[in-house]
Structure formats: C-alpha cells, structure tokens
C-alpha cells in the first residue's frame, strides 16, 4: 500500500505513474510465470514419458520457514537455526534441512504439472532422493520435473517423476529425486 501523502501539484501524476509501473510489473511477472503442463487422462500421461515438464518459478527459502520446520520435526541443529553460529560454519550461514527441501516438492510441482480426468492422485513414495548441495537460507529455489515412467496398476497408473530442486545460480542441484505417484480413474 502506498503512503498517504497530501495532494500537491504533480502528486497525482506521480501516483498515476506508480500505478502504471505496478501494473507493468504485475504484467511482466505474469509473463515470467511458468506454464503449467495440463495432462488429461491416463492415456495422455502415458504419451509424455521421457518428456521434460519444465520448471516452477523461483521461491525464496526464508529463516522463519526453516525455524518452523525445525520446530515441527525436532531437528534444531545449529546449522539450520542459529544464524550467528552458522556464519562461521562450513556454508557461511544457515541452510535449509534436506527434508524441508524435499517438502517443497508438492507446492512447486503444482506449478509444473496438473493432471485432470482422474478420480484421485496419491503420493506413493520415493525410489531415491539425494541432497547434493545445500540450500542457503535467503536463496531462491525452483523445481524441474520429467516423467520417467508410467506403469499400469490396478485401477490406474503409477508414475515415476524425476524431480530436481535447483538453487538460483548454483552449479549443482540441491535435490535429485525419483518420486512415485499413483493416479486412479
């Protein structure tokens, strides 16, 4: 919200320009949003095996998020929750928990993939997950996904998605995973 200032000569013009600037920024941020890949039905899902689905937008990982995760899980290791001590640690600051990084997958994946024409989908598990690089607090992360396989199961299909979470500007990913989902008709 803009501060309320007394009406002065030229203020209205300034305010109109701020509105235009904000509208342009909103318009540009809309263009920069990722396209959600919409897949309708199990046959179409089978047809995209091997395809890159794309990337989510970047999302900042903040200290309050890390602190809340530490409270929820009981993992209050100083590398995550003590910014002062962590400054002199191996990463130069606090880092997100590996499992916090993993927990970002559902929200980020919803920006990449939407499956329609199914009765329900469930998280079935994980074949493999690795955390090759840390996620520094204050960094921005995004998710990339690929449909690795689709296998028929009773009443539906099992999908393996290969997913990575990358820190903006980092040389290697912070999460590499093979995730399993089941979709039923």
By CATH, the architecture is named Roll
From the alpha carbons, calculate the radius of gyration and give it in angstroms.
21 Å
Tally of strands = 8
Q: What percentage of amino acids are in beta strands? A: 25-35%
Shape: elongated
Uncertain regions spanning at least 5 consecutive residues: 1-31
Helices and strands, in N-to-C order?
HEHEEHHHHHEEEEE
Query: Biggest sheet, open or closed, and with what strands and sense?
Result: 6 strands, antiparallel
Fill in the CATH topology.
Thiol Ester Dehydrase, Chain A
Helix content: 25-40%
- CATH homologous superfamily (4th level) name: Hotdog Thioesterase
Terminal CA distance? 46 Å
CATH top-level class: Alpha Beta
Report mean pLDDT, rounded to a whole number: 87
Supply the number of helical segments. Answer: 7
Structural class of the secondary elements?
A: alpha+beta
């Amino acid at each position: 919200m803009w501060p309320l200032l007394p009406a002065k000569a030229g203020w209205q013009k300034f305010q109109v320009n701020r509105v235009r600037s904000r509208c342009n920024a909103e318009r540009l941020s809309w263009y920069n949003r990722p396209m959600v890949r919409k897949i309708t039905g199990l046959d179409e899902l089978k047809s995209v095996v091997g395809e890159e689905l794309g990337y989510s937008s970047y999302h900042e990982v903040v200290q309050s998020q890390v602190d809340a995760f530490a409270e929820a899980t009981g993992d209050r290791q100083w590398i995550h929750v003590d910014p002062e001590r962590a400054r002199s640690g191996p990463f130069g600051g606090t880092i997100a928990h590996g499992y916090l990084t993993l927990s970002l997958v559902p929200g980020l994946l919803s920006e990449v993939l939407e499956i329609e024409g199914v009765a329900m989908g469930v998280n079935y598990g994980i074949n493999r997950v690795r955390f090759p690089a840390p996620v520094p607090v204050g960094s921005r992360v995004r998710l990339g996904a690929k449909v690795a396989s689709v296998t028929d199961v009773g009443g539906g299909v099992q999908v393996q998605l290969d997913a990575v979470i990358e820190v903006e500007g980092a040389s290697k990913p912070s999460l590499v995973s093979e995730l399993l989902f089941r979709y039923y008709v």
